[in-house]
Each structure stands twice: as structure tokens, then as C-alpha cells.
Amino acid sequence: MIETHAAEPDHATDLLSRLAARTARVAVVGLGYVGLPLALTFARRGLSALGVDVDPDKARAVGEGRSYLRTVDGAAVRDAVRDGRLEATTEFARVTACDAVVICVPTPLTREREPDLSFVERTGEAIAPHLRAGQAVVLESTSYPGTTEEVLLPILERGSGLRAGRDFFLAFSPEREDPGSGVATHAIPKIVGGYTPSCLEAALALYASAFDRVVPVSSTRVAEMTKLLENVFRSVNIALVNELKILCHRMDLDVNEVIDAASTKPFGFMPFQPGPGLGGHCIPIDPFYLTWKARQFEFQTRFIELAGEVNTEMPRYVVHRTMEALDARGRTLKGAKVLVLGIAYKKDVDDMRESPAVRIIELLQERGAEVVYHDPYVPRVPRMRQHRLDMVSVPLTDEALETADAVLVATDHGCVDYARVVERARLVVDTRNACRAVRVGRERIVKA
């Protein structure tokens, strides 16, 4: 039950006036694919932004005016630092001097596919001793409904001795960053839910200072569920077209042609594109947050879980199609040389989190294939907990294309000349319809 106590008037008035005058200072904790663009957005809209991250390399790069993300303009970072609007640190104590603290840290899954909120918890514990009355704290990390109130709020109140809704303002606003899309952060409508009405008012004012449109909702739980719905919607529809892709292959139909034809209907249809599986931090992970929470209410999210199963199996389907294509050409997958194009999870980004290409490579190697990869944006894949790969991107030379038994397009980066790929390769296994415009050599293309 949300208490309806209001924050002290002088606290609210001071914060709102500083935001209106653009003299407010905003701390963004977590300088990854969400946090750095957000900090830069506040800075470019006239506020002072302080990035906080445990990684000293990121803090150093920002301090030197450099971007370490391909999707964030390095010149914009340099200009914001030069103008004194953006800086970065590893010291959490500095949030005391800020008017608002926005948390943008990862929310992965455990090995058991359950929510891992350790980053949120540790961040709350790190900033709590440095909170002061009148500040706004907003969580942007995706999680299940109730996280802000059930997990973050008690940590902040216990560590600071302050009360949310009376001494400081607490809210949730789901991140909606879309790397590689070209859509500016400030142009994406911002959903905001507050712990109390006064918390909502403060958070709305914070985001209104930097975003073109701010959309209030009635609670932090509604805001948290909104984010999950957005990603579950994509997961389910991608699973649908992935399943239809497999069926269309058996029926000797081109699923992309079917989707294009259906897209001409001006109502009741929204096109989704099939692929080799799901990638990125959101869509492969967020549905599991909701299914985990649903079990606490004795509810089974069968539709969502089935979509997850379909998408998770897509790398195996891709490998199976590759085996079939090689077999039709008198070659076995064992001992075959396979060049994988793209290991990032989506087009024209340098982010490989949860990329289906990683699983595809692992499956190919398990079956005895000799695998190399080329990705202009991911020069190296270090060994991590999630996978056992330790690889370096190879140059996309004519020799690399010509000596491969199969070239497998896992990510359709726009900088790759696919006509050249098809011309030089013996076999192209295309999981993204990247070769749709290639007219010469189509007999060497197999869709997967």
C-alpha cells in the first residue's frame, strides 16, 4: 500500500525551481548503452551531468571527451565535456552534490534464468549513505513490477535514514534506448511512475527538462510492467515469424515475401522480421522477469514461455540448415570452414550481449566445424561467463570468402558488400535476408 504523505514543500520547490532554471545537476549511475546516451542528453539540454561507473576506463574516457560506444557521437561527448556540462567519476560520494540520481545498471538473469538484481542492490547500497533531502532517485533498469518499492526503496531508506515521498523523491522510468536506430534519446517518449504523487511530480520535471514528451502513469509498478509488455510483445511476435519461417521452408515458400505481401494491408497487421534468434539485453531476458514474478501469483505465462522456447531454439535451426546446405553440395559440417558474418546482436551496433551468433558459433564448433568470424564493430570476443568463445575478428578478404565452405550471415551490418560476398563465396547461409537485393549468384544463397 502506497503511503500518501507528501514531501516537504521546500524540498519540492527547490528541486523543481532548479530544474526549471536548468541549474540542476544530474548523476547517471552506469555508463553503458543506456547511461552514457542519457547523461549526454541531459548535458546537451543544458543541465550538468555527472556519470558514475565502477569501471575506471569508462570514467577516464568520458573525462577525456571520448566515446567508447559506436552509437554515441564522440564529438558530442567532447563538446559536452569541454563546455563543463558532462564529467564522469568512480566515486559514488559525489552524488551528494547532485539534485537527481538516475540508475542505469544491468539486470541480467542467473544461470537458473531468474532475476539477478545484484547490480541494482549494490548501486542502492553505494548511493544510500550519500543521499540528502530534496533529491530525486529514479531507477531505469528493467525489472519485474515491484522492484522499485520492494527492493530499491528499503535499501535507500535504511542506508540514508531518509523517507521516500517525504525527504526524497523515488520513481521508475523504463529505458527505451534503441542503439543503431538513429532515433535520438530525447525524441523517445519517456514513461514515468512515482512512488507518491510528489515523487511523480519531481520525476516528470526531471525528464521534461531533457525529453520532448513525458508520459505519467499511476505508479512505479505500472511503469515497470509497461517496459516488460513492450519487450514481451516483440518477443512473442518475433517467435511467431520465426516459427512461420521454419514452416515456410518446409512448404517451399519464402517467408520474407509472405511478410512483405501481408505488410501491404493498411490495418490489423504489423510486420516483424525473422532471424537467427534474439539478442541484446532486453528482449531475450525481460520476459523471464515477468514469468518469474507471475509464479508468485500462481499464474503461468504459457504464451510468453512458449515464445521464449521458439526463439531460443533458432540457433539450432540455423545450424541444421547449414548442415543441409553443405550436405547438398557434397560437404559435411565436420571439418568444414565456416565464416560467420557479424557477431553483434543487431545491425550496425557494437553490442554482442545475448547475441544468437555466439550460440551459433558454439553449436558449429561442437559439430566439428572450423569457425572464424568477421565483425567490423566487435574486433574481439573475450571469454565470458555466458560463453566459452575467445576469438578475434578476421578481415573480410577475398581469400577469406573464397576459402570458406560456407559464409553464414548472422548480423546484417550495413557496411558489408553482400553482392561481393555472394560473388566470392561458395555458399551463403543468410539468416537475416541481407542478400535480398543481390541478383547475381542467387543459386549460392540459402535462407536460414
From TrEMBL:
Keyword Oxidoreductase in annotation: yes
Domain UDP-glucose/GDP-mannose dehydrogenase C-terminal: 339-437
Gene Ontology biological-process annotations: polysaccharide biosynthetic process
A GO MF label: UDP-glucose 6-dehydrogenase activity
EC number: 1.1.1.22
UniProt xrefs under SMART domains: UDPG_MGDP_dh_C
Keyword Oxidoreductase on entry: yes
Annotated SUPFAM superfamilies: 6-phosphogluconate dehydrogenase C-terminal domain-like, NAD(P)-binding Rossmann-fold domains, UDP-glucose/GDP-mannose dehydrogenase C-terminal domain
A Pfam short name: UDPG_MGDP_dh
Keywords of this entry: NAD, Oxidoreductase
Family listed: Belongs to the UDP-glucose/GDP-mannose dehydrogenase family.
Name this protein carries in UniProt: Nucleotide sugar dehydrogenase
